């Protein structure tokens, strides 16, 4: 037993783990500590997570719907897979992967739209001990290439094209571009969706529909060690290139399955709809693994909230009798904009619980969601967690925890958050505000940054030795409730997606007319935060619409559309310290219109620049 956990915590996690199916039980619950960032759980155990998601339900839930698929276009019929059918599909996909040479420990990349094959595919990897890495379809070919180089994926699964609202995204063509000259990718499986014309390279590219035909119907689950990698998921940090967070099998399973049940108070026959894309952690944990571990029915939606009309979400809720809707504040705000008359037309009487995730939810959006969607009878669970934490850590339990708008409230069982002051000490007072850390390990914490354990230690365990540092700031009130205030590092949360300022700056600086740039978060009515870029051009280049357009296009090409700056201000200089460091704090104050709290600028290398930046500030339309 680790001296990090209390006896009660150890008992809690081991009793919980007993509720799952194991090939071999663990010898010891936990080893390692936060100092070396080498915590391991359920040492010596063997299992297969898909046996827990699928096989064990076959006896009682074979004919129950596991997955309901709602296509982008409402005129196309929806479809579903029962547990029996999902099990069969996963087995066949797993056999197909094997026939293409994929073995335990190999990495398989998914760059797809949201169709059942994506969920089937990642489960097929888990079935044979291969590691999945899903790259969101909104990332550019260059971003995809970076992730492929880092993960050394041998096989990619993609679509010919993907539908998102009124757009057709040419995924296969983007894959072709991404893997040009990249030898590590041996095979590309192409699932047909849009029937747009694509190029197929002989010996490398295969039509999924053709090759799946010869796949055997049953694939036994490969037993893997508790700490065998389950997936890699890339996310942005405050510096450098995206980090591939590595999650392992047993610990992830144990916490994700239980947190799903606890937070949402899931009951048999509920219909759970998480609107996230599987390209993000929420789609992994609460569209796929969490619901399936509990034998639930999970809804997968291919489209976007506003296509073909802003009533789409409410239509889906009524059509599939959704009981749980789990979405992001940015989606709520984007629908709020069209007026409450739209959701007011829908009874949505099936709804029992609403969820929020991805960014702080502002009180106005909270009340709108509560009144017009939940009709004042559904609790809202404001769930705080991260790609790194694997599952929800701080959240109300629906119907059990007294709610406070915009508060993530209390930690889940077994979880021990704390707040740190500016001297790096834990704040013992109940009412406090500080940087949010976790004091003790929990099973679903990521184990490392793929290929860079040193960076893992540096990023999460060095700021406060002995603690996991989240990168978020938070407040704690007299009820012990946590309210997450947002990132305290250089990560910007755009529509609930994490974007590193350094990454965007590097992309902007690739433009030949740019010398230097600085990107900060911009308060944004829909996205929560947008991106505001200050750009220093080379001599003789003036601010122009054409330049701004080119800069956005450069970012689009290097990272993808989600990282395009909302506003670009061309400037002659940036406020710098005498050691040459950009004073981002000042830039943030300018962008947030908090000029009076900029403070003393006299120690800057170039104090005169501040006034000029304020004078030239751009505004959202
Ligand atoms: C699950 C997910 C993590 C960051 C996190 C924080 C913000 C997530 C939140 C929230 C306030 C909530 N965040 N949930 N902030 N209230 N309920 O979103 O993972 O994409 O890794 O983002 O999102 O800033 O640190 P990920």
From TrEMBL:
InterPro entries hit by this protein: Ac_CoA_lig (IPR011904), ACAS_N (IPR032387), AMP-bd_C (IPR025110), AMP-bd_C_sf (IPR045851), AMP-binding_CS (IPR020845), AMP-dep_synth/lig_dom (IPR000873), ANL_N_sf (IPR042099)
Q: Which UniProt keywords apply?
A: Acetylation, ATP-binding, Ligase, Nucleotide-binding
What's the encoding gene here? Answer: acs
UniProt keyword Nucleotide-binding present: yes
Q: Which GO terms fall under molecular function for this chain's record?
A: acetate-CoA ligase activity; AMP binding; ATP binding
Which protein family is it in? Belongs to the ATP-dependent AMP-binding enzyme family.
EC code: 6.2.1.1
Kindly provide the name given to this protein in its UniProt entry. Answer: Acetate--CoA ligase
Which SUPFAM superfamilies does the UniProt entry name for this protein? Acetyl-CoA synthetase-like (SSF56801)
- Mention one GO biological process in which this protein takes part, according to its record: acetyl-CoA biosynthetic process from acetate
